[in-house]
Design a protein that fits this description.
15 helices, 480 residues, alpha/beta, disordered N terminus, TIM Barrel, Immunoglobulin-like, 8-stranded parallel barrel, 2 domains, 6-stranded antiparallel sheet, globular
């Protein structure tokens, strides 16, 4: 639902007074029962998820700067905020841009600008002081809850930073080489390092580690009321660990679990949603002319047979990894970007917005250094407002455990034109797009009167009608 600007300004104005109230609520640190917010499966059906990169979201790079903008995210239909790791970052073996270690840089001022990887964690139960205090973090969670949003934390169970207390206190928690030395994470297929040399690999053969890690996760749910976790490289950690951890956490309250993985067994009693990595890569390749719509159809048929009915995926055209390491949306998708964005919202699953994407960000955010996203609304913001409202309110776009049907619609140019319907009967939506860089004429097996959602005009289709779409042109049609 689009909120008027006056309301957004009011929300910012009242946040200061709310903060004092929230602090009083937090004096005991553990939220009392009536204040607890619980996420349910029904909340996920028509949700949009936002990936918050606290360091780069604002010039300040703080919880408070991000919290001020939480009411604005309601305009985009955001229901879930995934906060990238907020924990203290290890100094030992800290990486710099270009693959160097910070310790190799002689100039002291030059060394200071490298803040390290969010994923090299020094303590699972504290916050990075660069972002603010634990009270600031709690206020962020509270403001999100007050605005009808849920907060999930990025959890890195596969490895820690080299400064983590476990390195000294519990070296048995870590993978060690023949000489008894702790090693960085290794690729299980090759036995070679992934290159994440700023982190130390955890060894899940040790069941005492399971207990310790689960306790650290429960801390945030019990004491700060968070609503779930996004699990980094979830498939590299034993599925059985996740099952017992999630079971223990759900004794506190329901949580939403997102896996950075497509591994099928993770969905059994552990995770609710996974990454649509394969679909994302096919989108990139279609945008670059390397694959046709036929590849997309093969993929959709495949996942329909591989996953359980209540499994669902997160759809995206960018995220922190893609942006920093593989390029901006414009670099990877060019003129196809808008059609792919629309596709990510209309597919079964949940669409992702990454910090800065809503502001037409067209640069790769630095990963180990301070950077900042743009804050000027351009072409993408109003698109996301419309897509978000449609996702939130149209039952044909239900995409969670009770996802509305996805039905491929036949056209005369199926290798160039992607057309499908979502839902059925009174609640039906149609996405149709020319996913090539050339104009295309085609016919589609569909007739009836529809509303063109993006233009609000009326469209009447007949099965023998020839349609002509420009390169990367798309339409979202809803039944009247």
């Amino acid at each position: 639902m689009i909120k008027k600007m006056a309301l957004a300004f009011c929300m910012v104005a009242v946040m200061a007074s709310c903060k004092d109230e929230n602090k009083e609520k937090r004096d005991s640190e553990t939220p009392n029962e009536e204040q607890k917010v619980s996420i349910e499966d029904s909340d996920l059906e028509n949700a949009v998820i936002y990936e918050a990169n606290i360091r780069q979201y604002s010039p300040e790079g703080t919880f408070n700067a991000f919290t001020q903008d939480i009411p604005k995210l309601k305009e985009l239909g955001v229901k879930v905020i995934w906060v990238m790791p907020v924990y203290p970052i290890s100094m030992k073996n800290r990486k710099a841009t270009g693959g160097k270690m910070v310790s190799e840089i002689e100039d002291e001022k030059e060394r200071e600008k490298y803040l390290g990887s969010y994923y090299a964690i020094a303590d699972y139960t504290k916050v990075n002081p660069e972002f603010g205090t634990i009270e600031d973090f709690q206020n962020m969670v509270d403001v999100a809850h007050e605005n009808g949003m849920f907060v999930i934390m990025d959890w890195v169970a596969n490895h820690t930073g080299w400064d983590h207390p476990w390195i000294e206190q519990h070296p048995e928690y870590y993978t060690q080489n023949e000489a008894g030395e702790i090693v960085d994470p290794l690729n299980p297929e090759t036995g070679e390092s992934w290159g994440w040399t700023d982190t130390a690999d955890l060894n899940y053969d040790n069941k005492e580690l399971w207990t310790a890690m689960t306790k650290e996760m429960k801390y945030w749910v019990e004491n700060h009321g968070i609503d779930g976790f996004r699990a980094d490289v979830a498939g590299e950690v034993p599925t059985e660990f996740w099952k017992q951890a999630v079971s223990a956490i759900k004794e506190v309250k329901p949580v939403f679990m997102l896996a950075e993985s497509e591994k099928k067994d993770l969905f059994h009693d552990a995770f609710d949603m996974g990454y649509n990595w394969e679909g994302h890569h096919i989108m990139n390749e279609m945008a670059q002319g390397k694959k046709t719509v036929a590849a997309w159809d093969e993929y959709m048929t495949k996942i329909d047979t591989l996953y359980q009915k209540d499994d669902f995926l997160m759809n995206f055209i960018t995220n922190h990894d893609e942006n920093s390491w593989n390029g901006t949306v414009n670099e990877r998708m060019g003129d196809a970007g808008e059609a792919m964005l629309a596709l990510s919202y209309t597919l079964p699953g949940m669409p992702l917005i990454y910090s800065g994407q809503e502001y037409d960000m067209d640069h790769r955010l630095l990963f180990f250094e301070k950077d900042s996203i743009p804050k000027t609304k351009g072409k993408v913001w109003p698109l996301m407002v419309k897509f978000g409202e449609l996702k939130n309110t149209n039952s044909a776009l239900a995409g969670g455990k009770e996802a509305a049907a996805y039905t491929r619609l036949k056209t005369t140019k199926d290798d160039q034109v992607l057309a499908f319907s979502r839902g059925s009967g009174d609640d039906m939506l149609i996405y149709v797009a020319n996913l090539t860089k050339a104009p295309v004429k085609f016919k589609m097996e569909l007739d009836g009167k529809f509303q063109d959602y993006m233009s609000s005009g009326e469209v009447e289709l007949e099965k023998d009608m020839e349609l002509e779409f420009k390169p990367w042109e798309y339409k979202i049609l809803i039944n009247n």
